[in-house]
Specification:
The chain is α+β, with helices and mostly antiparallel strands. The protein has a five-stranded mixed beta sheet. A four-stranded antiparallel beta sheet has the order 1-9-10-6, covered by helices on one side. A two-stranded antiparallel ribbon has the order 7-8.
Length: 292
């Protein structure tokens, strides 16, 4: 699933290409991808001629601020990613007009939603598993929605201080990896960067939050910000489905210390990385560096 660095990379890529453009049409072969409004014809009608005024991120959501006080929210879920370019349909299959472009990457071929813009560019949503969601809101209703207001603080914001981070964990219980992956606790941290941050901070992913010392909390706070910031600088992680809006891969793959490195040597001590499963997710850690 695209996490904070991937979504931030997506936003930056989109902003460089489609700001101030207007939607002229929408195509889909999987109309259920649009959750709000549920009627796809109504969605097409309401978004037509809306101008893209800004694009930003909240947690793992991409939000387009549109004219007439509308907002388009796209959550890419597990295998979705947004692309910008030009495609033509051949035998019911959309293919990039520029065959030498990174858009030709096989992971970019699962196009289920395409927005046509007023300059002939297109924004396409590629999603192999069709889990992504697209919603068109009145802006004030989105910002005041229960789901939106329940999101935790943004870990890369300047006002996300250690004191605020520490306060989050007061009177909390639970295994630390699951806690920091909860979007109501910290926004945007998923499986990849949780594992990487815990390795950086030398904290076992199953350690109870209530047993963390202030020193460990400080190390984790710094590790989360460091790992996420580095992920953004490198354009995210593309070892699996995710691609940047131009269709190319992010460069964080070579920087992974533990995630998906089961059986390989720890970069710090040489011990073999282990994988465990709990809470329905895998966790990767070094049994020497990250003792329970």
């Amino acid at each position: 699933m695209p996490e904070l660095p991937e979504v931030e990379t997506t936003v930056k890529g989109l902003k460089s290409k489609v700001l101030n453009r207007a939607f002229v049409d929408v195509w889909s072969d999987w109309e259920k991808i649009v959750k709000k409004p549920k009627n796809f014809s109504l969605f097409k009608k309401e978004i037509k001629d809306k101008k893209i005024k800004n694009i930003w991120r909240r947690a793992k959501n991409v939000i387009f601020d549109l004219s007439e006080n509308y907002s388009l929210l796209i959550h890419q879920k597990m295998t979705g990613h947004l692309l910008v370019g030009k495609w033509s349909q051949q035998n019911k299959i959309w293919k990039p007009i520029n065959q030498n472009s990174p858009l030709n990457d096989p992971y970019n071929r699962f196009l289920h939603l395409i927005f046509f813009l007023d300059n002939n560019d297109m924004i396409a949503l590629s999603d192999a598993r069709k889990f992504a969601k697209v919603e068109l809101w009145k802006t004030d209703e989105l910002l005041n929605s229960k789901e939106f207001k329940s999101l935790g603080p943004e870990p890369l914001e300047k006002d996300f201080t250690f004191e605020k981070f520490k306060k989050i964990f007061q009177n909390k219980r639970g295994r630390i990896k699951l806690v920091i992956m909860n979007p109501q606790v910290v926004a945007g941290v998923g499986n990849i960067y949780a594992s990487e941050a815990l390795w950086t901070a030398k904290i076992h992913p199953q350690k109870d939050v209530a047993k963390l010392t202030e020193k460990e909390l400080k190390s984790l706070y710094e590790a989360i910000r460091k790992v996420l910031d580095y992920g953004v600088k490198l354009g995210g992680e593309s070892f699996s489905d995710y691609r940047k809006p131009d269709g190319s891969k992010g460069d964080f793959d070579t920087e992974r210390k533990v995630y998906k490195r089961e059986g390989q040597k720890c970069h710090r001590c040489g011990t073999k990385i282990k994988r465990i499963s709990f809470g329905g997710r895998s966790a990767f850690y070094c049994p020497t560096c990250q003792k329970l």
